[in-house]
Amino acid sequence: IRLGRGFNGIETSGTTVTAGAAALDAHVARKAAAAGVDLTFLRTIPGSIGGAVRMNAGCYGTYVADHLRDVQVVLRDGRLVTLSPAALELAYRRSTLPPGAVIVSATFTGPEGAPEALEARMADQLAKRDATQPTKDRTAGSTFRNPAGFSSTGKADDTHEMKAWKLIDDAGMRGAREGGAVMSEKHSNFLTNAENASAADLENLGEMIRKKVYETSGVTLEWEIMRVGEPAPEEAGG
Ligand SMILES: Cc1cc2nc3c(=O)[nH]c(=O)nc-3n(C[C@H](O)[C@H](O)[C@H](O)COP(=O)(O)OP(=O)(O)OC[C@H]3O[C@@H](n4cnc5c(N)ncnc54)[C@H](O)[C@@H]3O)c2cc1C
After folding, report:
1. pLDDT of amino acid 220
2. Proportion of the chain in helix, strand, coil states, percent, rounded to 5
3. Does the domain made of 5-120 have the CATH classification 3.30.465.10?
4. Cα–Cα distance, 221 to 214 (Å, whole number)
5. Is 142 an annotated catalytic residue?
């Protein structure tokens, strides 16, 4: 289901921001900033609010879980219900949305901030991302979860001990290539489509990385990217 224009509204009231599921994260951050509400963490995350809630998206220490007040969801039987963050059990890149449920909008409450200061913070974040990630390449973002998992929620999994990019570097796989797929030289946890990579190139390279990392560090990397469709030929029948 692709949610269209009827679902991309953004409304602010005091420190509350309600955004349709199709509203782009970046637009929500900017509109909130203009109204003096700090949802700046959404500024550099690609995608829209529905996906951000579903994946508990976040960066630079702040996640959806930190500021979500509630979500409006259409259940499989057609009922429109409001769910609390507790019901969604938001964790590192995870949530427990009821099966088949579609998020239609989400309401956030953010800290107050001066619009100019919030604009400046967003500009910093954009620059930081450009400096450290292959933002101009074709990529689906972080490819593997950081093994310990982390969030800014202060929960038990809130550690940064193991970074996927470091394990990939240690396995000598920065810049590794398979067909048109390349592990980015700029950030080794970003799988990129450098030259017309097929889905199989991308998936096979990812699996190669997982194997090498396991051999060098004993850690089994988990895909962060959700893969859909048929498995790559090498895995078929496995
Ligand atoms: C270059 C790059 C950088 C990234 N950086 C970050 C980052 O810093 N932090 C971070 O957390 N993520 C990051 N991501 C991952 C991605 O941006 C997040 O997972 C994102 O928030 C997903 O949003 P989307 O709209 O693209 O959702 P999609 O990828 O389309 O969907 C993600 C999941 O949510 C479900 N979903 C989407 N909309 C709805 C809805 N309305 N109702 C119910 N389910 C829905 C989909 O079915 C799917 O399971 C990055 C991705 C890229 C490409």
Report:
1. 93
2. 30, 20, 45
3. yes
4. 8
5. yes
Q: What is the pLDDT of residues 137-162, one digit of tens each?
A: 999 899 999 887 544 444 545 455 68
Distance 236 CA to ligand 1 centre (A): 27
The protein residue whose alpha carbon is closest to atom 2 in ligand 1 is 141
The CATH architecture annotation of domain 135-217 reads Alpha-Beta Complex (3.90)
Tell me if residue 230 is catalytic: no
Query: How do the domains of the chain map onto residue ranges?
Result: 5-120, 135-217
CA distances, 78 to each of 3, 64, 100 (Å) = 15, 25, 10
Q: Is the pLDDT confidence value at 228 over 80?
A: yes
pLDDT tens digits for range 93-125: 889 999 999 999 999 999 999 999 999 999 999
Distance 52 CA to ligand 1 centre (A): 5
Q: Give, for ligand 1, the residue of 54, 184, 186 to mutate: max count of ligand atoms closer than 8 Å to Cβ.
A: 54
Distance CA 163, CA 147 (A): 7
Cα 56 to ligand 1 centre (Å): 9
Q: Tell whether the model's pLDDT for residue 38 goes beyond 80.
A: yes
Report the alpha-carbon distance of residue 63 to residue 152 in Å, rounded: 7
Do 234 and 204 meet the contact criterion of CB atoms below 8 Å apart? yes
